[in-house]
Amino acid sequence: MAKKTTTRRRPGRPKGSKGAAVIRVANSRCGKCQSTKKKALRIVRERPISGTDDKGCPYNRVVWRRVQCTNCSQHRVEIERHYDGDAL
What we know:
It contains no helices and 6 strands. With 88 residues, it is mainly β. The chain has one domain.
């Protein structure tokens, strides 16, 4: 009897599929319908990264959140930069 061979699938999304959009919180609009309404907030990750943004404001913590648009159900990732006192 011949041995069955299986092909190993790579983890993750297939090549060419669309990923989630990365959007800043200040201009948090859906890329599809331009709505500002969102639901299903959850923290994806949080890192103690310090620096200054393009407006010159300092930050010392970055939070990425995954949200979903209430109008069209499009998922997106919001980036939120925080400055916590004198920790910089």
